[in-house]
Every structure is written in structure tokens, then in C-alpha cells.
Amino acid sequence: MALIDISLPRSVARALRLPAKSPRRQQIRVLKKLLKKARFTEFGQKYRFDEILLSKHAGKKFQQLVPTYDYNKIYAEWWHKTLEGKRDICWPGKIKYFALSSGTSESASKYIPITNDLMRGNRIVMIKQLLSLRTYHDIPVKSIGKGWLMLGGSTDLQKGPGYYAGDLSGITAKKVPFWFSPFYKPGKKIARTRDWNSKIEAIVEEAPNWDIGFVVGVPAWIQMCMEKIIERYQLNSIHDMWPNLAFFVHGGVSFEPYKHGFNKLVAKPLTFIETYLASEGFIAYQDRQDTHGMKLALNDHIFFEFVPFNNDNFDADGNLVENPEALMIHQVEEGKDYAILLSTTAGAWRYLIGDTVRFVDKERCEIIITGRTKHFLSLVGEHLSVDNMNKAIKLASEELNVNIPEYTVAGIPHGLFFAHQWWIACDDAVDPELLRQKIDDSLKELNDDYAVERNSALKEVYLNVLPVSKFMEFMHLKGKIGGQHKFPRVMKGKMFEDWATFIETGTISKPA
Question: What positions does the domain GH3 middle occupy (predicted)?
């Protein structure tokens, strides 16, 4: 029986048959549901949730009474109490699970609260995405009923005083619904493995015993796993092992830099399905093939606000200013970049997640991820986004027929002016100077500000080509191997210091 035909619990089925409403009405309903549930918490009492609920304009009142938060601020004021085991702080009850998330720029781990309400909302959004596959054309739906290889963090979570902590993917796998267990690979035993290399080896060993139709994970690690399987069993493609493999569900980073490499591993096209699943919640998903955008999950467990990503709302380091302009879903415009504020069923309130998005279809509420608030380069006003970089890498790799799965960029001094330094991961033979020119020329076409500054204060672009293994080795030394960890596209601060040391010496400095 295909997974898509499994009978769903009645409560979930009701949640999936939602009446058509305007995005604004959907979001106000979600906000009121969140406020009602959390009104007796410490947070809800301090910020007068009851008063907001009585207001005729709940959205505006919410924005007036509740301040914005980034992780450091909300942890210092509120979440540290939940980690200490206190109840009813930002969400009713005691928080028993925390997702460890360090992002790609900070070195210290963040403890993101995970609740049963959040996990339930995530599952509902996941099922909605599954059901949306029925609308795809020429999709082998039978593959959904095959095995699902979910390559994530260990389910053997760290035990704290009254809580468990680990990767969200590990927590999710540990709490897999009973009806999903027959499909779930690599299985609970391998999923508990903490050592990433040991986990990959175990998956490679078991690969011939599975009939995989779906793979789920971060592109870099899925690609590495497939390459090891092909190498171990001397296959021409991954389809020699898994002929029913049809879907790859990915998220966390743009897939464009990886697509060329993936095409070399398959014998027939895969359907690539993008998701936007963060530690803070399941934010959006691709529900149709003929678009690059993902549909926001507006009617479930997250209330969204959108902060225009500009100099009025963010400082030069990408930090949110006090009292920024925050828009609701009906106020956004297509083609502009916004940072997202989330309020969720895990006690995140007006929380800056750190990603920037752009609406590509406002009517359908479809977005693309364009980067991070702290992962952009604007030394002299070039306003270079990760989205620009991804497109330039894609164009260059296709034109030169090379695979570039990873890259990173830093801004550096150049006399009295500035330059960009690129490091490119590529195991194919490529002329670094030609690659540099291709990327530079593409960015000039993609970004008018960049083109202007290349004739002004942005004096030079440098590029070094490194083996892919060099990037993986750095991630290993940083303790960011596997799971949901992604290589930072822009190097700044302590991460850049460590990267520069690593490039020069092959090691990184350890904290005192």
C-alpha cells in the first residue's frame, strides 16, 4: 500500500480539509490560537495576551505590545528558564526537547525549544506536502510507498537535567509515528549512531537490502552517501541499486550548486522537492513542480511577520534594529527581500530566524530563500546576496561543465579599498582564472549595485580552487559534520578567522 493512501487520524484529516480563506484571515486565526494557548504563561502575562485577544486588530496590537527577539535576547530573558526545567515560561508545560542549532556563523550551540504542539504542526504540514504530490504530472506515486531514506542527526540525544537535546532531524526520527515506521530508513538502530562516518558506513552496508523511493536530507550529505554507495558496489548510477528512487526532498540550502553533481549519480531524472524545515518549525514547502517557490504554511502552527531587509531595519552586521518595520502577509510585495519573524507553538515570539526570503508569487504565498541576514556582502554597497552567488555559481559550473558543490566568500581589505575572496570546492579540472572571470561577469549582470562597485571601491575579486574534501575536513574540525549542518556561504567573524587559519595551517584554534 502506498504511503499516500494510508488513512489519517481524524484530527489530522480535519486539519487538512481547511476552508479557503484569505492569507490574512488564516494568519490572524493562527495568531489568536497561539495567544489563547499561551496566555497564562509568564510571557503571555507580561505582554498582556488577553488584551491582545480582545482587540479588534489583534495583529497590530500584538506588534505594539510584544518586542522583537533574536536568539541571544530571547534566551537571556526567557528560554534559559525552560532549559532550567521551569514550566509555563513561553509555552504551557515543561519543555522536554531542545534542538541544538548553531546555524552557520556562530560557534556556540543554540537550544531551540521543541514541543509536542510544534511536532504535531510539522507533521500536518508534511502530510499536506505529501498529498500535494497527487497534483504533480508524470510522478511515479508508487515510489512514495517504497522506503524513505532520511539522512539526519542521531536519535541518541544528549541528556540534560530534565531534557533531551540534539539535531531536529534526530528528534523527529526518534518520534516517528508508528504508521511511518515500516517506510523509515535507515531504521532506529543506525539512526541512533552518533558518529557520522560510522552512520554513513552502516547505510552503505545496508543499501542493497532496501528499496528506496525517497531520499530526504541536506544535499551535500545525500550526495556524499550516494557516491559512497556507487563506489562500494561499482555501480553506474544509484538507480542500479534503487531502481524506484524518484524523489529527493531537500532543504536548508539552495540546491542549484549541487544539481550538476547529482545528475552524474542518477540514470533517470529525480523529482526535486524543496522544503523549508527549520528547528523553529516547518515554514514552507514546494507543492507544485512548475515553480521554484515554496508555499508558506500559513494555516497551521506559525504566525509570520516580514521585516524589509534594508538599512532602516538592519545594521551593517545584519543585526535587527530596535522597533523595526514588520509587515503581515497581506502587506508584502513581490521581488523584495524580507527577514522572517516567527511566533510558534514552541514559545518563539516575534523571533528573528535569520533567513531572508523573497515572494515570487504573492497570490499563492510562494517564497524563495535568498540568504541569511548575516550572510551577505555589502562592504561598499554591493549588496551581494547568497541568491546572487548561487546563480553565478550555477551559470559558471554549467558553462564550464564542472561540479561545484560548495563555496564560500569573504570580504577583505585591498589597499585603501576592498576585495572579495572566493574559495571554490571542485574536484574537476578547471582554470581558476577563467572561473573567476565567469563568476565576476555573472554577478555584474545579476546585481546592478555589484556592477557599479566593481568600477569603484570593490577593486578586485580573488578565487582559489580547493578539493571538496578540504571543505568537509573543515566542517569536521568545527564539529559540524552531517545532519543539518551546512557550509557557510559567507565567512565573517570567528568563523572566518578559523577558516583562514585552517587554509594556512590545516588546523583551527581551539577555544581557551
Answer: 298-361
